[in-house]
């Protein structure tokens, strides 16, 4: 079974969907989203808590933002043992809650093979970036035993983006390819990012890092 959604939604709740194997959502947030940010229900659990056979997840526009709303319960009540492909677009790495959604999905998908993430443009006059210390949360204790391919696009080099890439490279023993596409126009800034990426430890002896410019 497959589910494709495209439109403006106030809220989404999946029920009696144990046979869903693929989900694709292009989501435009309802103008009342601020009211839902006060909700105690964690949308990640509410939307993806009943799809144990999920093999592919694709989310566009504000989908990751929607999943991040609510009180994070810690470990998710479900493990996505069949999930092999995750594609999330326009993820705000300036928002620690959206980064947490990424980490929750990745670390609860032990057979994940392919991960594609595009970053949303940073704000023109951004607030101070919300720090997200992976070490404090012990995420480097996880292993991603099947992850082979990572593609990160529209990367601007903010701390949360780089920390997430470092996490993937440091926990994926069979990783083969990491493709990073930068949105930076400044040559010196791009070079600084490349230098930092090349310093990240890789647990996979076959992992190759490819850096591209938009």
List keywords for this structure.
214 residues, alpha/beta, eight-stranded parallel β-sheet, 25% helix
Task: Explain what the structure shows.
The chain has 214 residues and is of the alpha/beta class. It has helices at residues 33-36, 43-48, 63-67, 96-107, 159-171, 187-199, and strands at residues 2-9, 22-29, 56-61, 85-91, 114-119, 149-155, 177-182, 208-213. An 8-stranded parallel β-sheet has the order 1-2-3-4-5-6-7-8. Strand 6 (149-155), helix 5 (159-171) and strand 7 form a beta-alpha-beta unit. The longest helix is centred in the C-terminal third of the chain and has 13 residues, at 159-171. It starts with a strand and ends with a strand. This is FBD domain-containing protein. It holds the Pfam family FBD. Residues 141-212 form the FBD domain.
Short recap of the structure:
The chain has 214 residues and is of the alpha/beta class. It has six helices and eight strands; from the N terminus they run ββααβαβαββαβαβ. It has helices spanning 33-36, 43-48, 63-67, 96-107, 159-171, 187-199, and strands spanning 2-9, 22-29, 56-61, 85-91, 114-119, 149-155, 177-182, 208-213.
The count of DSSP E runs of length 2 or more, i.e. the number of strands, is: 8
- Major beta sheet, specifics? 8 strands, parallel
Measured between the Cα atoms of the first and last residue, the distance is: 36 Å
Mean pLDDT across every amino acid position: 88
InterPro entries: FBD
Pfam family, one: FBD
Protein name: FBD domain-containing protein
